[in-house]
Amino acid sequence: MMVVSLRFRGSNCLRQRIILSLLTAKSVIIDDIRSDDNEGLREHERSLLELIKTITSGTNIQISRTRLQINPGTIIGGEISYNCHVERSISYYLEVLLCLAPFCKKPLKATLKGVTNDQIDPDLDSIKASSLPLLKRFMGDVEGTKLDLKILARGFKPEGGGSVLFTCPVVRQLQPVQLTESGKIKRVRGVAVAARVSPQMGNRLIDTSKGLLLRFLPDVYIYSDHTKGKTSGLSPGFSLSLSAETTEGCILTAGAVSNSKGSSGGPTIPEDLAKEATYALYEEIERGGCVDSINQSLALTLMAFNQKDVSIVRFGPLTTYTIHYLRHLKEFCGLTFKLDSCDGGEVVATCAGIGYRNLSKPTY
């Protein structure tokens, strides 16, 4: 039987195409990847493809300059250790693992090494605070391996040196979820990270951010994480991650990271960074919804690859990345979401899952 490959052009949304190719077992051909300058795939994208080979069996990936072909195999999972390219944060790789991990053959225990905080991708503290609880809602209570993300060492750009341990159990099927009420903000938590810099940097971040947040609610607590020695990575830096929890248990996150050593932007002032992170959290709260902007595509994946039952989730205004993902879901799965606009730009997304089952999971 002839296998028909889905064809795409350009380098955009590479992770989306990889995730959907593996979950639907459909081959993908991507042409004209940065063909204007004949650059092709960048180092971090090649590194991501190597990670895919590590967690799967039988996946065939062919790269020829500006062309990429993926013939997906079986998602195995298991215990792995991988050095991520320092051009992008570990979060770049985790986006793919979060979508694939529940459908592995074996529970995933992935030790990822590289950059833990950068200015492009969401920081790991935000993923731990918001992405994992969202994934747990769809997975339910699973015995055995705990769904967890442990930050073993911090690593800022340019040299990295950070390390995290991501563990996730496997399920036969996900559970449908209805998230329609976002509630009101009841508390704010945060983590101020300082690595290979003075501990005062973390304190200045905390004082400035709390000064802004305490104007609106009293329950604000920001932890200080000043790392030393091996746990501080190879480059100096500091960051602030904030998460706001609502009365309905929804979590909205935002953060900011200092300029990397030797960057053209020069040194970062902690007070300015704290204001940037706090204002970003204000914007996320104003956007509304039950899921923050960094987790919209994860929520859509979990809704689509679910039982043949209805899931409903209220989002804030959809990001451009999310809109592209909705189009990819239609191409790969033939699935169309019902989108209802609400006041303030919020969108209620409704869909019936495609009845996806993890046939690789042992039944004993």
UniProtKB/TrEMBL annotation:
Q: What is its main location?
A: nucleus
Q: Report the record's Gene Ontology biological process terms.
A: endonucleolytic cleavage of tricistronic rRNA transcript (SSU-rRNA, 5.8S rRNA, LSU-rRNA)
Query: CDD domains under this entry?
Result: RNA_Cyclase_Class_I
> Which branch of life, at top level?
Eukaryota
Domain RNA 3'-terminal phosphate cyclase, by residue range, is 7-338
Q: Which GO terms describe its molecular function?
A: RNA endonuclease activity
Q: Which UniProt keywords apply?
A: Nucleus, Ribosome biogenesis
Keyword match Lyase? no
Q: Does the keyword Nucleus apply?
A: yes
Compartments where found: Nucleus, Nucleolus
- Protein name (Swiss-Prot/TrEMBL): RNA 3'-terminal phosphate cyclase-like protein
Q: Which organism is it from?
A: Aceria tosichella
